[in-house]
UniProtKB/TrEMBL annotation:
Annotated family: Belongs to the class-V pyridoxal-phosphate-dependent aminotransferase family.
Stretches assigned to the Aminotransferase class V domain: 27-389
A single GO molecular function term of this UniProt record: transaminase activity
Transferase listed as a keyword: yes
Keyword terms: Aminotransferase, Pyridoxal phosphate, Transferase
Cofactor(s) demanded: pyridoxal 5'-phosphate
Identification of the protein by name: Aminotransferase class V
Keyword Transferase: yes
Stored SUPFAM superfamilies: PLP-dependent transferases
Length: 396
C-alpha cells in the first residue's frame, strides 16, 4: 500500500491545531515542539477539574483518559501497554532503566560518540560508583556509529549497548535496527534513547530489537513539558530492578515485605503530573491518527530542502552527518558565531537553538567545533517558512 503524503490542506489542519504556529517561525522542535492544541486543551481541562473538585478526585474521575496514555504510547512504538511507564522526563526514564541494571566491577557498556550528555555522565557516574568500563565506539566514514567496530568491541564482560537514536546536535539517524541485530546475536541488553525520535520517525521496538526505550513528551510529540515515558520489554523486566521504589512501583505486603509491580509501572512514581500524562496520551494519539509515517516523511523532506537551500547560499557550512538524516539541521554562518546567529534570528521572530561542546564533549571537539546553530523542523512548518528562514539567516 502506498503511503499518502500530507497535503497542503493537511498541513493547514496541523497548523490550525498548533496555536503558536502563526506567531513565529518555530524551528526549535528538537528543543520543545510547539504545543499541540488538543494536548494543551486536555491539560488545561484536567487542571481546571482539579481546581474545582480536587486533585485525587479529578484523577479518579478521569481514569480512562489517564490510562489512555499507556495504550497510545504502546501503539506508537509497537509495544504492549503493560510494558510502558510514565516518567517525568526522558532523562529520568533512561536513568530508571540504566541504574536498574545490576552492574558489577569490570562489566562493560558500549556506546557511541553521539550519546546524549546526561546519559554519558550517568555512564561516568557508574564507572566511578560501580566500576563499569565504557567502550566508546567511533563513527564510521558516514558519521554514524561504526557497526563493525561495535561488534568487535563486544567481550564476555559486555552487559549493555546504549545508543542515542537521533543525536540532539545533528541530523544523523543512527542505524538502530542494525545495532539491535548485533545485540540479539550476542544476547546483550540494548537501551535506546528515543528522546528525539519519538514522534519524529516511525518506531517499532520489535523491529529495532531494543529491550529498553526512553522518550519525552515535549519534543516531536508536542506534548506537555515534564512528561516522558519508558518502555521495558516484558522479556527483560526481571533483569532490571528500579533504583528506588514507592507505593506506585511496589505493593507493601506486610511489615517486612514488599513486591514490585508485575509490569513496567514498577518504574513509576506515585506522585506525578496527572494532567501531563493525560496530555501526552492525547499527543501520542494525535500522532497515530495523522500517521507517523506521513509526519516523518514531511519532516525529513522539509529538512532536506532546508539543507539544500542553506548550502546553495554559499554563506553556510552544514555539519549534519550520517547516511540517513532527519529533521535536525546544524550549521554555521560564515564569519558569525552561532550564538550571534541565534540572537539575530530571535530578533526576527525565528526560534532556533545552539548546541555547544559542553553538551557534546566526545563529538564536537573531535570535529574541531565549539558550537553549532541547530534548526529543527516539524510537519506543521511550511515551505514558505523555509524560504524566509534561509533568506533571513544569510542576509547578515
Amino acid at each position: 500500500m502506498t503511503m499518502s503524503l500530507l497535503s497542503k490542506r493537511d498541513v493547514e489542519a496541523l497548523r490550525d491545531d498548533t496555536p503558536g504556529a502563526g506567531n513565529r517561525i518555530h524551528f526549535n522542535n528538537a528543543g520543545t515542539g510547539l504545543a499541540l492544541g488538543p494536548a494543551l486543551a486536555a491539560v488545561q481541562d484536567h487542571l481546571n477539574l482539579e481546581s474545582q473538585i480536587g486533585g485525587y478526585e479529578a484523577s479518579a474521575a478521569q481514569t480512562d483518559a489517564y490510562k489512555a496514555f499507556y495504550a497510545n504510547i504502546a501503539a506508537l512504538i509497537g509495544a504492549q501497554p503493560h510494558e510502558i511507564a510514565f516518567v517525568e522526563n526522558a532523562t529520568r526514564a533512561w536513568d530508571m532503566a540504566f541504574y536498574g541494571i545490576d552492574f558489577r566491577p569490570g562489566d562493560r557498556v558500549i556506546t557511541g560518540r553521539s550519546e546524549y550528555v546526561s546519559n554519558y555522565m550517568a555512564l561516568l557516574h557508574q564507572k566511578a560508583q560501580a566500576g563499569i568500563e565504557i567502550d566508546l565506539i567511533d563513527d564510521d566514514d558516514d558519521g554514524q556509529i561504526d557497526l563493525k567496530a561495535l561488534e568487535a568491541a563486544i567481550t564476555p564482560r559486555t552487559r549493555l549497548i546504549a545508543l542515542t537514536h537521533i543525536p540532539t546536535f545533528g541530523g544523523l539517524i543512527n542505524p538502530a535496527e542494525e545495532v539491535g541485530e548485533i545485540a540479539a546475536r550476542h544476547k546483550l541488553l540494548f537501551l535506546l534513547d528515543a528522546c528525539q525520535s519519538a514522534g519524529h520517525i516511525p518506531l517499532d521496538v520489535g523491529t529495532i530489537g531494543c529491550h529498553i526505550l526512553s522518550g519525552t513528551g515535549r519534543k516531536y510529540l508536542r506534548g506537555p513539558r515534564g512528561t516522558g515515558f519508558l518502555y521495558v520489554s516484558a522479556d527483560v523486566l526481571d533483569q532490571i530492578h528500579p533504583p528506588f521504589v514507592d507505593l506506585a512501583s511496589a505493593d507493601w505486603i506486610d511489615a517486612n515485605t514488599f513486591a514490585l509491580k508485575p509490569d513496567s509501572t514498577r518504574f513509576e512514581n506515585w506522585e506525578r503530573f496527572v494532567a501531563g500524562q493525560i496530555g501526552l496520551g492525547v499527543a501520542a494519539g494525535y500522532t497515530i491518527g495523522i500517521g507517523i509515517e506521513r509526519i516523518s516523511h514531511r519532516i525529513c523532506d522539509l529538512a532536506a530542502s532546508l539543507r539544500t537551500e542553506l548550502a546553495s547560499s554559499g554563506k553556510i557550512t552544514l555539519h549534519d552527518r550520517g547516511l540517513r538524516k532527519g529533521g535536525i539541521v546544524t550549521f554555521q554562518v560564515t564569519g558569525e558565531a552561532p550564538a550571534r546567529t541565534m540572537a539575530r534570528l530571535t530578533e526576527k521572530g525565528i526560534n532556533v537553538s545552539v548546541s555547544t561542546a559542553a553538551s557534546a564533549r566526545i563529538d564536537l571537539p573531535l570535529r574541531g567545533l565549539s558550537s553549532l546553530v541547530r534548526a529543527s523542523v516539524h510537519a506543521f512548518n511550511t515551505e514558505l517558512e523555509v524560504e524566509d528562514f534561509v533568506r533571513i539567516t544569510t542576509s547578515r
